[in-house]
Amino acid sequence: MPHAEGVSNDEFRAALARLAAGVVLVTAHEPPLSPDGPRGEDAGMTATAFMSVSLDPPLVLVSVRNGSRMDDLLLEQPLWAASLLAGSQRRIAGRFSMKGRISDRLLFADTAYRRGELSGAPLIEGALATLECRTERRVEAGDHTLVIGRVLAAELPGGDGEPLMYFKGRYRQLGE
After folding, report:
1. Residue 2 to residue 6: CA distance in whole angstroms
2. Cβ contacts of 61 within 8 Å, gap of 6 or more
3. Residue 120 has pLDDT above 90, yes or no
């Protein structure tokens, strides 16, 4: 069905499916309900709407669906992380995508990660790069929120491997 502007959801999706994007796993650690309470859970989501915003200060942006688990968590937890996934990490990207996902606790059960020193969020082992961030600003944009984060730490644990890409509705590697 066309919007007032004349572009249908299907036309919009088909056009943007032709924009290749890197695949990032955004993670955060839920703060405990009270200082003496049980430790909060980890949460994660696969994102392809992720980009660099500024070098000085170092800022990145991720788009999260309004009302999603990650949107709710990032509203209360300003510290989060992004793991830029390698081509060999398709399984991780698929597990954390929004389609047919299971509980966050089960998602992390067999995913190798270490906890970020500054954010407390999971940093995925073997990722090409990891960033620890603090939310600077949230901007509502249609059915998503743009979360702008200041990069507090950046590491290159996965070296010079190939990136995982998303193009025409599938995960791919360069050269495919």
Report:
1. 5
2. 50, 51, 52, 53, 146, 147, 148, 149
3. yes
